[in-house]
Amino acid sequence: MKHGNCGIYIGRFQPFHLGHLHAVKYGFSKVPELIIGIGSAQYSHTLENPFTTGERFTMIKLALDEAGISRSSYFIIPIPDAEIHKIWVSYVVSQTPSFDVVFSNEPLTVRLFKEAGFNVERIPFLDREKYSATEIRKRIIENKDWILLLPKSVAKFMEDIKGLERIIELAQSDKPRASS
Amino acid sequence: MKHGNCGIYIGRFQPFHLGHLHAVKYGFSKVPELIIGIGSAQYSHTLENPFTTGERFTMIKLALDEAGISRSSYFIIPIPDAEIHKIWVSYVVSQTPSFDVVFSNEPLTVRLFKEAGFNVERIPFLDREKYSATEIRKRIIENKDWILLLPKSVAKFMEDIKGLERIIELAQSDKPRASS
Amino acid sequence: MKHGNCGIYIGRFQPFHLGHLHAVKYGFSKVPELIIGIGSAQYSHTLENPFTTGERFTMIKLALDEAGISRSSYFIIPIPDAEIHKIWVSYVVSQTPSFDVVFSNEPLTVRLFKEAGFNVERIPFLDREKYSATEIRKRIIENKDWILLLPKSVAKFMEDIKGLERIIELAQSDKPRASS
Amino acid sequence: MKHGNCGIYIGRFQPFHLGHLHAVKYGFSKVPELIIGIGSAQYSHTLENPFTTGERFTMIKLALDEAGISRSSYFIIPIPDAEIHKIWVSYVVSQTPSFDVVFSNEPLTVRLFKEAGFNVERIPFLDREKYSATEIRKRIIENKDWILLLPKSVAKFMEDIKGLERIIELAQSDKPRASS
Amino acid sequence: MKHGNCGIYIGRFQPFHLGHLHAVKYGFSKVPELIIGIGSAQYSHTLENPFTTGERFTMIKLALDEAGISRSSYFIIPIPDAEIHKIWVSYVVSQTPSFDVVFSNEPLTVRLFKEAGFNVERIPFLDREKYSATEIRKRIIENKDWILLLPKSVAKFMEDIKGLERIIELAQSDKPRASS
Amino acid sequence: MKHGNCGIYIGRFQPFHLGHLHAVKYGFSKVPELIIGIGSAQYSHTLENPFTTGERFTMIKLALDEAGISRSSYFIIPIPDAEIHKIWVSYVVSQTPSFDVVFSNEPLTVRLFKEAGFNVERIPFLDREKYSATEIRKRIIENKDWILLLPKSVAKFMEDIKGLERIIELAQSDKPRASS
Question: CB of A54 within 8 A of CB of F96?
């Protein structure tokens, strides 16, 4: 398959793990330039979205530096969710430089970009059960091994910002920001 | 019971089925003019709300044409949800021509319109278990018979816009628009 | 020029005047079915947007009835403004049945639909200086003749809902909803 | 005129001046309990709305303490603007204890509450040209006398929080938060 | 531990019960002045948030009057949820007079205020299983004893506004405002 | 003056001109790493904000490539305006990697960051009257020389996307998206 100059890959990266890195590398095997979109950019401090966009931005930068990927070849852009799904693709396009291929395995992302006429390509998974942000957050809460699922620099950053403590505390709060 | 000129009937119509058509006909047995409100108008491409407001608008038009109901007797108006429930009735009133009776069986809709002083009337159900949009979406996902629960023109339209495919794909996505 | 089945014509209709009626008739000379979009649908009770969407909906219905245009040939749909202009066309599409031509003279509307690849057609003006909603509101405030610029049924409706009184009072309030 | 137990008086209080205090006292001559609504509550750091809601809250408390008005007789409640004017009254009602009279001279506030069926009463002005928040902000920018237009405690508080400096700096910025 | 002049205590108060009153009293044992924030202020008419902010405001006022707590010592301020958790503390600060201690047991509230550098203090619970708003709403729905868990004046007010009826009706509606 | 590792510089860049490039270079004379924030990120297709965030993103990338500034030394991040000014800094912080100095001449930006405790530094202007986006848009509308005020690559990109035509058309529309 032949591609143009620029692809986009959108994830939530809560946190950015080795499966995400694998997907980024796969993207670079197809296109020379990649936009990495931080999805659900408005959320943080929830069990599903513990980290801020700024923290996730730093994780990606650290992981790609560690992997020796040149900063000249990618851009990182926050992408908030849109309440109206049907306009989300149009919003993404308004916020990013132009791209000609979308890398995604997420069914809704795939469908919305396809309905808008984009070229969408699946990413081969790297052991999906294991390299999953949900699994990593679960292991942190249950005090199981998780550190090998992340790039070293990301694991260290998460400890620096007391990210483990945050995930564990959020697990105790089922009703965000509300005492009853 | 005596009524004025215009009633309102609000549903989500995901999709518009024979139970909805039954309710519309019941409304017309009470009032000569009906506003049909498309509720949760901002949503589409979710499991509970697969279709856009534009698509639901077309479904209603097709179903009522098929049933021989004159377009001169009804208006279709999109009604988004309001985050603040207490102001929703006031919002509905600001977006529609005036009406003097509300047809609804949905408990919250009934309560909000009653608290605001409106005349609310229940609609006799047409086999509620069967004629339910939730049931229809479930049957589509499980590849069971569903086609007889819809007006023919709506069933055909859903196939034209690849609506079945959309519902089935959305069923695979529990985290809208987010790959983790 | 050959057209498909359905066109869209979007205005604010504050209030709906004979120039708007002229544009609607022009649309019907080109297509058999018309979507009439009520723009800036979220606004009312300001000097530029005195009437609610519900009131404007009623004005259009009355004017087209008076002009003998069958209700079977058009639909009226509220269209709120979007803060992000670039996604507005995509929002309009999500809220309406499909259309294949856009009737507009408003520069931004023309540009946004053109950038999105739509077929846009200009409407010949009917004495633009005179048949203008801004001019009509100005005349009402200055107590000058305005009644001949509107369809009779719309002029009567405006008096029924005390619309003149509202426009005059709003002209006294430069800072909406705020006493300082 | 006879009144019930509770009235509401809404202003922006940018800043709270002697004219506002006069209006509060007038309210208390009619009702024993008053809700003081801080309007446009979402805004601060603009030329027209320099102070935060928290700062305006403190100003009111200080001014009424200074005037010897018991805290037992009033409540202060932030009231953000609503984009949709027609629902604003319904929003105010949802956020406040019940009230039976509205004190206001602001034309839009008067109109919206009247359209919603409320009892609205005008407040006799105290030298309107002079006791005006717009006038006070203008005098501060032009380095003219302003201090006698405010309760002493409010003037002192404004100096404590460097409010004069803020107003003067904001006057230099016509394009909020944007360098071009 | 030594404290300043003012503390803040934020709850949803759906409804305000004896456990909340206990927390307020605990706050007053530490500081002379208390801001009582009504959290999730935008919500009402849902199973988890049945009462409007105005109704909750009245409940707090009644309960504190009944307990003999002077109105001169506290302020009640509505605090809506923020979609972006990380900015919520900054929003709270913009809407309230300044405070120097936060009373809370809710994990997310505790974490957000701590990350923003505030002094946060836990409140000793008063029989947590029993004095819980969730438990009270559950008892009302199941027609069990609940009245002794509330201040008398609050129980009476809930009956006056037909609050029990509302909770029971909302329990029948799992899909707010939508009939399918 | 000594600085840390990372600064932030926020502008609207409508379009990105040589004055902006000068400011970026000044920033790099103080810090090795720069976050370039695209302010008012939600706006496009207005006279003051003609370009989308995606287009402005591309302009910055082109201009800095042309100036020989390595992509490894900066990040570009969209920053929407916040309705509530007081929370804007907190929002910026949540969306970006951490920074320790803010470069700005815009009075409100300066004030908000200072009130939040940040180190803010003024940027020496490069012929302010001339190198101004407002001036450039004005010259384009009046068909005067403008091309020398922009980096060559930005001028070419603006022509490629028909940006001049867009600015000129928007100048004809004083009421965005509304025909009256």
Answer: yes
| Phi, psi values for residue A162, rounded to 5° | 55, 45
Residue E89 lies in a domain: yes
Distance CA F82, CA F91 (A): 8
State how far the alpha carbon of D120 is from the alpha carbons of D99, F16, F158, in Å: 11, 52, 55
Look at residue B1 and tell me if it is in a domain.
no
- Do F7 and F73 form a contact (C-beta atoms < 8 A)? no
Strand, coil or helix: F159: helix
Name residue, tokens 């868990």. E149
A36 closest CA partner among A91, A76, A94: A76
| Residue C70, SS3 per DSSP | coil
Each residue's pLDDT, cut to its tens digit, for chain B (180 residues) gives 445 689 999 999 999 999 999 999 999 999 999 999 999 999 999 999 999 999 999 999 999 999 999 999 999 999 999 888 989 999 999 999 999 999 998 888 999 999 999 999 999 877 888 899 999 999 999 999 999 999 999 999 999 999 999 999 888 865 444 333
Residues B165, B168, B169, B174, Cα dihedral to 10°: 160
| DSSP structure string for E12-37 | --TT--HHHHHHHHHHHTT-SEEEEE
Interchain contact, D180 vs F111, CB within 8 Å: no
Q: Quick check: is D180 in a domain? A: no
Residue with tokens 């009406």: B99
Provide the number of CB pairs (under 8 Å) joining chain A to chain E: 62
Q: Is B7 helix (H, G, I), strand (E, B) or coil?
A: strand
- Residues of chain D with Cβ-Cβ distance to B94 below 8 Å are 84, 86-87
CATH number at F15 reads 3.40.50.620
Q: What is the CA radius of gyration of chain A?
A: 16
Q: Which residue of B has its CA nearest to A105?
A: B179
Contact D53, E94 (CB under 8 A): yes
Reported ipTM: the value is 0.91
Q: Judged by CB atoms within 8 Å, which residues 1-20 of B form the interface with A? A: none
Q: Which of A43, D49, D156 is nearest to E94 (CA)?
A: D49
**How many domains does chain D fold into?**
1
User: What is the DSSP annotation of D55-123?
Assistant: HHHHHHHHHHHHTT--GGGEEEEEE---SSGGGHHHHHHHHS---SEEE---HHHHHHHHHTT--EE--
Q: Return the SS3 of E140.
A: helix
- Domain of residue D114 covers 6-170
Q: Does A19 fall in a domain?
A: yes
Flag whether A touches D (3+ CB pairs, 8 A cutoff). Answer: no
